[in-house]
Amino acid sequence: MAFGWIEEQDRARREAGLVRVLRPRPAASSLLDLASNDYLGLARHPEVVEGAASAARTWGGGATGSRLVTGTTALHAELESELADFCGFEAALVFSSGYAANLAAVTALAPHGSLVVSDAGNHASLIDGCRLARGTTQVVGHADPDAVRKALATHDGPAVAVSDTVFSVDGDAAPLAALADACRAYGAGLIVDDAHGLGVLGDGGRGAPQGAGL
């Protein structure tokens, strides 16, 4: 069988207890969900729900094309402008998911010949972004700016450090100010995933980088 190896891998994963099973949840439940990332409860906020319904009635249920062709609407432009203003940045770009955003950011900002210094505790999306990047990835100890400095000191070309701001598994925060200092010292870029900081940390919820003075 052409794909017999898939069955063999599946069997090995099941025997090792590594198969995850999806558990669909109902629309309404009396259970208290402590695993959600919806920290602010916005997913069911009446204004958010009505806004989504109103947008679907006005714009339809799909983008009809890629962003570069026909898929960018006035809603995209408005949202990106408001996000940029809120966070204090020149511009913003909205993706279909945080996972897609991380893949795009790391691969775009780590060119051929670059060094990518990745925190050992990074989210899978950042890890996959490092794997897809054209540079060389070096994984360093968790939340260790000194290790980042040592890694950057060994490389003469373009370099970036990659880290979550708040690590979703343990809930600890990256030493952003120290990481930024390390990157400045060696002319390197700093890419951070603020999925668990934006809306919660910083002045008015403007995120962990803003809270760290970056």
Automatic annotation (TrEMBL):
InterPro entries documented for this protein: Aminotransferase_I/II_large, AON_synthase_class-II, PyrdxlP-dep_Trfase, PyrdxlP-dep_Trfase_major, PyrdxlP-dep_Trfase_small
Keyword Isomerase: no
Domain of life assignment: Bacteria
Pfam families documented for this protein: Aminotran_1_2
GO molecular function: 8-amino-7-oxononanoate synthase activity; pyridoxal phosphate binding; transaminase activity
UniProt GO BP: biotin biosynthetic process
EC assignment: 2.3.1.47
Cofactor requirement: pyridoxal 5'-phosphate
The name this protein goes by in its record: 8-amino-7-oxononanoate synthase
Source species of the chain: Streptomyces rubrogriseus
